[in-house]
Design brief:
Blueprint: H1 4-8, E1 12-15, H2 31-46, E2 51-56, E3 62-68, H3 80-85
Antiparallel strand pairs: 1-2, 2-3
Length: 91
């Protein structure tokens, strides 16, 4: 059963914006996921290879996120210069 605080909390879901959303305190307990949001999400979003939405609390701190990647790239089919810069997860 949710607590009164959980029911009263106001959350918003917004497209990822590294400039206006505070990700510094985000921690889900899985270092790889925490690091993805804090260190990698901006690069993937800027490169247009992923769409990310974040859940923000009233203080605009990130309390959750989800992302979608609608494609896969086979590294051996890429030119070597592009393959060097491609993300390694999911390849």
């Amino acid at each position: 059963m949710p607590t009164d605080a959980a029911v009263d909390a106001k959350f918003t879901i917004e497209p990822f914006d590294a400039k206006s959303q505070d990700r510094t305190a985000f921690s889900c307990g899985v270092p790889q996921i925490d690091n993805y949001l804090k260190l990698t999400a901006k690069k993937g979003s800027k490169a247009d290879v992923v769409r990310i939405w974040v859940v923000l609390d009233e203080d605009r701190s990130t309390v959750g996120f989800y992302g979608i990647n609608m494609h896969a790239v086979i590294a051996e089919n890429m030119p070597e210069e592009l393959a060097k810069k491609a993300p390694r997860h999911g390849m």
